[in-house]
């Protein structure tokens, strides 16, 4: 087995290494797959540990569904380990708790782990894919005016799946 190594993000566009031009940093996207969320959190943690510049220089960090929670954690500097612990706890509950209790737990986790300046860190950099309920239009939410906006957008992505709590967040009905 070969030793692991760090891979650093490229230099800003226009700079060169050994006379070669280097491309601009790439954006990062986390897919929507609830069962992959803990895997994606592990990938993000590995990138944070081994190649932090990749995450720091990404102009956009995007997510859909469960991937939105990972993207928000990356952009807002939340503890990825705490999110993994939460996901494992929620998964272990299985069918013992109803969906509403899981949503309440998710909202509590968001309020606990998102920093007070989450909206400042997220605005313009975090992009969350959503479906607008009235017309089914796909939209990307990337402007946040308060920490509560970030919480509600992350919370709304899960409410759409259940369809019992769709009006809870104003982001689902714009």
From TrEMBL:
<dbReference type="GO" id="GO:0016020">
    <property type="term" value="C:membrane"/>
</dbReference>
<keyword id="KW-0443">Lipid metabolism</keyword>
<dbReference type="InterPro" id="IPR002641">
    <property type="entry name" value="PNPLA_dom"/>
</dbReference>
<dbReference type="GO" id="GO:0019433">
    <property type="term" value="P:triglyceride catabolic process"/>
</dbReference>
<feature type="region of interest" description="Disordered">
    <location>
        <begin position="1"/>
        <end position="21"/>
    </location>
</feature>
<protein>
    <recommendedName>
        <fullName>PNPLA domain-containing protein</fullName>
    </recommendedName>
</protein>
<dbReference type="Pfam" id="PF01734">
    <property type="entry name" value="Patatin"/>
</dbReference>
<dbReference type="GO" id="GO:0005737">
    <property type="term" value="C:cytoplasm"/>
</dbReference>
<feature type="domain" description="PNPLA">
    <location>
        <begin position="28"/>
        <end position="174"/>
    </location>
</feature>
<feature type="short sequence motif" description="GXSXG">
    <location>
        <begin position="63"/>
        <end position="67"/>
    </location>
</feature>
<dbReference type="GO" id="GO:0004806">
    <property type="term" value="F:triacylglycerol lipase activity"/>
</dbReference>
<dbReference type="InterPro" id="IPR033562">
    <property type="entry name" value="PLPL"/>
</dbReference>
<dbReference type="InterPro" id="IPR016035">
    <property type="entry name" value="Acyl_Trfase/lysoPLipase"/>
</dbReference>
<dbReference type="GO" id="GO:0005811">
    <property type="term" value="C:lipid droplet"/>
</dbReference>
<dbReference type="GO" id="GO:0055088">
    <property type="term" value="P:lipid homeostasis"/>
</dbReference>
